[in-house]
Amino acid sequence: MDLLKQRILKDGHVKPGNVLKVDSFLNHQIDVALMDAIGAEFKRLYGDAPITKILTIEASGIAVACMVAQHFNVPVVFAKKTQSINLDGESYTTKVESFTHRRTYDVILSKKFLNKEDHVLLIDDFLANGCALLGLVDIVKNAGATIEGAGIVIEKGFQEGGAKIRGQGIRVESLAIIKSMGDNVVEFQE
Ligand code: 5GP
Question: Do strands 185-188 and 104-110 pair parallel, antiparallel, or not at all (unpaired)?
Answer without folding.
Answer: unpaired
